[in-house]
Amino acid sequence: MNFKFSKRISGVKASAIREILKMMNDPEIISFGGGNPASETFPITKLKEISDDIFNNQANTILEYGITEGDIDLKKAALKFLSRHETVLKDYDEVMVTSGSQQIMDFMSKCLCDEGDIVICENPSFLGALNAFKSNGAKLVGIDMEDDGINLVKLEEALQMPQKPKFIYLIPNFQNPTGITTSLKKRQAIYALAKKYQVMILEDNPYGDLRFRNDPIPSIKSLDDEGLVVYAASLSKIIAPGMRVAIMIGHRDLLAKCTVAKQTNDVHTNAWAQRVMARFLNEVDMDEHLNKLQAVYSRKCNLMLKEMDRHFSKDCKWTIPDGGMFIWVTLPERLNMPSFVKKAIEHKVAVVPGNAFYDDDNKHCQSFRMNFSMPSDEQIIKGVAILGALIND
Ligand SMILES: Cc1ncc(COP(=O)(O)O)c(C=O)c1O
């Protein structure tokens, strides 16, 4: 059969990261390429205890079809958790439980974009989101990242284009892939521009609770007083990604359309996973749980940074994240980044070439992404030394 695929999906390439993840099956490879949470932080005992109890006492309720918008107990528990430091639910907002926040990226672009519509994104940005937007026909306009978030002049130029963008996609905390945190000043300025040009913002915050340095910064959602900001809060990185549970908060009119999109997609998020998550949020001391996670991430990040300081040459630059899972390394011009990444794989260390995260992956890029949540301490020490030797070679 000679398949003739739709234009929408033909424009989306297999993720470079997924290709690198495949190599992780090779036990000899030290992978700094993944983007998974540290599996030693999964609260297995508690999740099993809750799950067993649900199967013993309420099996029928989780084995039956559920409500598209999500389990009512989970929505309540999640809102209580997400609202503990700031207001993320406004009078005009609704809440929906989604199958991971990846589904929020899909619904936002499915519900707002026609073929050729523009989505503004940080450059570089999370590949899964960029591919979701593209698969729904969107054209990406990337705005370069600076140390404190996107370039505001370039953002305003993009907002002034004759074709009005549909929304701006942002990851303000410890961004994937750069680890950069958008400053409060920039969050306020971005929101002011969104308001001026009446363009929506999709604020993706899967890493906010993995902060291990400096003080938290208010979300853009908390600044919103017009219904312009949609907030994506994933439970993947703070509980477990395999359960596929995230929370979408946004204006009720938009959420009503996303509910229709969900009905045509997966009907509702897995009922068992939702009920377990609800009880986990209600029964566990979340501050204590998050403190434990932050301690693990902090230790691993600091170890990787220390080893990089020791082994990487002084003409390399890298970000120092306040949380999350990623460090973004920029090589000096004397080195060719794609050849370096290839060489690293030959020496059994995987990192992700930075151009994979750009709106156009043909752009020149000297950077690569390193993940510190997945490798063990020994792998961090060994892998960074190998990369350092290659840089100095
Ligand atoms: C910035 C960002 N957003 C969303 C996701 C997807 O998360 P989820 O598991 O909730 O679909 C990821 C996963 O790596 C991510 O890095």
Automatic annotation (TrEMBL):
**A single GO BP:** alpha-amino acid metabolic process
**Gene encoding this chain?**
lysN
> Which key words tag this protein in UniProt?
Aminotransferase, Pyridoxal phosphate, Transferase
One matching Pfam family is: Aminotran_1_2
Q: How does it assemble?
A: Homodimer.
Regarding protein family, the annotation reads:
Belongs to the class-I pyridoxal-phosphate-dependent aminotransferase family.
Give start-end ranges for the coiled-coil region(s): none
Report the PANTHER family cross-referenced here. AMINOTRANSFERASE, KYNURENINE_ALPHA-AMINOADIPATE AMINOTRANSFERASE, MITOCHONDRIAL
- Which cofactor is essential here? pyridoxal 5'-phosphate
- Name the EC number(s): 2.6.1.39
Which GO molecular-function terms appear in the entry? Answer: 2-aminoadipate transaminase activity; pyridoxal phosphate binding
Stated name of the protein: 2-aminoadipate transaminase
InterPro entries registered for this protein in UniProt: Aminotransferase_I/II_large, Class-I_PLP-dep_aminotransf, PyrdxlP-dep_Trfase, PyrdxlP-dep_Trfase_major, PyrdxlP-dep_Trfase_small
Q: Which organism is it from?
A: Thomasclavelia cocleata
Kindly give the CDD domains that the UniProt entry links to this protein: AAT_like
